Amino acid sequence: MDLERLSTRNQVKKESWWSVLTLAYQSLGVVYGDLATSPLYVYKSTFAEDIQHSETNEEIFGVLSLVFWTLTLIPLLKYVFIVLRADDNGEGGTFALYSLLCRHARISSLPNFQLADEDLSEYKKISGDNPRNLKAKGWSLKNTLEKHKVLQNMLLVLALIGTCMVIGDGVLTPAISVFSAVSGLELSMSKEQHQYVEVPVVCAILIILFSLQHYGTHRLGFLFAPIVLAWLLCISTIGVYNIFHWNPHVYKALSPYYIYKFLKKTRERGWMSLGGILLCITGSEAMFADLGHFTQLSIQIAFTFAVYPSLILAYMGQAAYLSRHHVLESDYRIGFYVSVPEKIRWPVLVIAILAAVVGSQAIITGTFSIIKQCTSLGCFPKVKIVHTSSKMHGQIYIPEINWTLMLLCLAVTVGFRDTKHISNASGLAVITVMLVTTCLMSLVIVLCWRKSTIYALAFIIFFGTIESLYFSASLIKFREGAWVPLALSFAFLLVMYLWHYGTVMRYEFDVQNKVSVNWLLTLFGSSNLGIVRVRGIGVISTELVSGVPAIFSHFVTNLPAFHQVVVFLCVKSVPVPHVKPEERFLVGRVGPKEYRLYRCIARYGYRDVHKDDVEFEQDLVCSIAEFIRSDKAFDYDLDPEDESERLTVVAASSSSLEGVQIYEEDKPEQSSVEERVPSTRVKKRVRFVLPESSRIDRSAEEELTELTEAREAGMAFIMGHSYVRAKAGSSVMKKMAINFGYDFLRRNSRGLCYGLSTPHASTLEVGMVYIV
């Protein structure tokens, strides 16, 4: 018996290790495409103008030493061994760190946050703290963040800056990767011919790359990992060849002593060259940003045992070759391809272009994912999100963002026409994102990991100092291309903050002008107002989690009729990556049972996929039916203003086999004989199937029957179409932000139905003017 158990454990262990190794292999194509292609342009960018390659080899050996220690300290030590541990329930990235901090500090950028959201299984609660150790565990910092709104806004802006720089990198990375890969053509033609061929070829590849985005990556994704693996084997093999053939003693340059000699000789020029050296770590942030698609262990294994040694061998090989070649025909001959043996130069060129396309694809897909997260958290206007795969989670395509990135990428390529200025721009974007991650991680160490402040200070001082040196070296090249990421990030930051500010102001107006439940009960109880109840289900879309929205009173005032079943629906995002289907809906009553008024709150994580209209409608109706069936359905016997405190978590029909199941089918219905032209109308037939052990009273049975009839009659979605204006007496900045900025974004963003997955045919919009 013991032998059987031991063999079973060994089998499970082998399967788990096999799955980890499989994920590590797959991560090569998704995570490391950008980082793996960095040898194409690091040395060329470093020696572009700041320093010269001399006979003493002090410059090339110093650069190699800097590259080695930069790769060791930033991607390997910081990201692989520290930052990857700060995942948000398996998700990574700037917004993951921000949401993690928001939950532990009990702050939120979302205005309709509820205490019930803290009961979600992925919402890690703060518990088990000894009051004597509160200060040591970061509670003083936590209380400071809770009390000061300015600090909360600063934290949000910091997260948005990092996010905007990632989006800017989505413009620059495809340009520099493809440009550097295509630069191999310079060795097969004259420089005069090359300058007329290179840019058109790069633009053609970029146009094809962005034009194929709407097909998704799931069809060709299986080729990404082999391409990057082939590229890593290629550069490492060439590196080993160059080391043994040209300079076997190049390993001595890995000593930090050569950094000292390099900086002592080059001084200010050496410091400025750091802007090119930092490109060796471009793409490192992808290890953390793409954590949700893989596991922490798989990413660690892939980088430590495949990517890291391959890159070190590649840089050592290039340095070994250059240490024996000091007289170069021209400055552009110091690039990667000059160290490639001539016999295999063309195959290497093809593999390099494919690897550059894979790396560009990864950053483009990552940009789509970041925009979706920002939209979910109310920091970006609503855009059309297309799911390109029904099987693979996270495969999305955003048309507006795709074409915007393509135009900006082509503008950068045509405008600069070389890798020197593009590398300066890309370097500043990369190092800014890393600085933001360092700042947020120092807060995570104190607030989330409950470590002493000393650890946080040591982390931010050590890594912050290194990254600040690179940041200063990149910023000094502002006029030589570094202004591009600053301009792009400022534009995106302005859009994000204006949208977030306008959204918060609009929500505060809704809260201040919401109608009391007592008014609604008076409306229902009075028979002299001429209110007519029609068949069907009326869904009132609102961002409020309590009270009656002003659009409903506006609607009833102008059209004194509403449906026999009314649902106040709030679809909101919560600061967790995913919400389990069985925890999706919060359902409660608004008023007595006989009024058939319900409140339903559908909660989604910032990485969740919203369902289509049919499935969403079924889950919505079934959640109300499950609420009616459950024993938690109560009579209206408390204060009507506290209905939000009596919401019940109800599982959706598709996620729970123990609750109420809904079955719908279209039943053809012949027209009456009095009609001149015979026709067939389709009528929906609805059935609720209760669990076998379920017992309900007569009133609940009548309520379910009425819900069934209402569902068969149809469902209508009533949404508010708001026009936001700044109130009289507001400052000039507020009027410009609301009347022009936010209004422009609102008019050019997608409608609410895209965010709610509701059909256009059954949607009714109610216009209102918001004076904020």
TrEMBL record:
Protein name in the entry: Potassium transporter
Bilayer-crossing regions: 20-40, 60-81, 155-176, 196-215, 222-244, 270-289, 301-324, 344-364, 396-416, 428-447, 454-476, 482-499
Family affiliation: Belongs to the HAK/KUP transporter (TC 2.A.72.3) family.
GO cellular component: plasma membrane
All residue ranges annotated as the K+ potassium transporter integral membrane domain in the record: 23-521
Example GO molecular function: potassium ion transmembrane transporter activity
InterPro entries documented for this protein: K+_transporter, K_trans_C, K_trans_N
Signal peptide: none
Subcellular location: Cell membrane; Membrane
Function: Potassium transporter.
Residues of the K+ potassium transporter C-terminal domain: 536-770
Keywords: Ion transport, Membrane, Potassium, Potassium transport, Transmembrane, Transmembrane helix, Transport
Membrane topology classification: Multi-pass membrane protein
Broad class of the protein's primary localization: membrane
Highest classification ranks of the organism: Eukaryota, Viridiplantae, Streptophyta, Embryophyta, Tracheophyta
Keyword Ion transport carried by entry: yes
